[in-house]
Automatic annotation (TrEMBL):
A GO term, aspect molecular function: transferase activity
Keyword Transferase attached: yes
Residue ranges annotated for the Polysaccharide pyruvyl transferase domain, each copy included: 16-300
Taxonomy, superkingdom: Bacteria
Any single Pfam family the record assigns to this protein: PS_pyruv_trans
Record key words, sorted: Transferase
Protein name: Polysaccharide pyruvyl transferase
InterPro entries: Polysacch_pyruvyl_Trfase
Organism annotation: Bifidobacterium ramosum
Amino acid sequence: MSKVSSITVTCNRPLNYGAVLQTYGLNKALTQMGVDAKVLDYYPEYYKKTSNSLIKRIVHLFLRIPDKIKGKKVFGDFLTNYVPMTKKMYHSVQEIKVDVPVADVYIAGSDQIWNCKNLPNGLDDTFFLTFVPKGAKKISYAASLAMPEIPSNQVDRYRNLVGAFNAVSVRETSGAKLLEDIGINNVQVVMDPVFLLTAKEWDEVASASSFIPHERYILVYGYNKQKNVYHYARRLAKKLGIKVYAVGVSIEDYLLDVDRFFWNATPNTFVKLIKNADAVVTNSFHGTVFSIVYNVPLHFFKVGTTANSRMIDLLKELELSDRWIKDENTLLSNSMSYSEANVCLNKLRARSLDFLRREVIK
């Protein structure tokens, strides 16, 4: 009997750790189920756009040249070595329709593929699998809307496009409610693909890193350059008597108040840095996720003046809401138990894997 084949469409080409590691996580889980799983190599044209102003584009280009050169190699090499992808790279839904890769099941997800408020992804029909041949099965796995509401001018479009799926699963409870409110039934809530693999399975990725920890440290992984995240980490490190490390993709971050900065480290090193940290201070979704996977003491910062729904949903679901820093002037205890969270996580992981088996294999 031949294997079931699948093609996953996700955010696999952004230069960030969460994107490539969740891509790996889902594909690895499918492969372990016996699926001939591949990822659509998709690099949409809008990823290349930075600003409508020519001057701003030129300035941005020169400032980010080192980041882009190293980032494309680091993340590109990881995808090449760890994630089976289509031989062809596609740049638009029109291009895919001309040469659709063949599969038994097409999967949309994970990550913020259905966010049309803060990202262009939700405006891109590729992430709604409109290129899939008539009669072929299409499902979503842990698709994230990551927005407070579906814009009124997008409601009919979302209803029609998502309604055409054979099975729908999303990453957040808030996202499920948004879809149910516009008439999409039987929406399942499943875990981010990173959670599909255990810490032991992620060790296979971490073990390929050349990083060798020789001192205790707090790891900071943040975005939007929230200085209060780094100030908090420094105070925590002083209390614990250890160093502050940071990892990121912007060369400008060398200016941050840290003892060691890992610029565009490999995804393998990213995972290993979290695994070996005494604590993680982060405002990132996947920084939070990997801290939970490895049971590393977590100090989660809200983004700006509001907390991102996808992060709060996750912390609530795993009974870790007390790890959300509500007063940055007060340090959370670095002594915490993951016992209840691990029980919840194991149940949710099993439910998520069951969804994949049921919808992809059976």
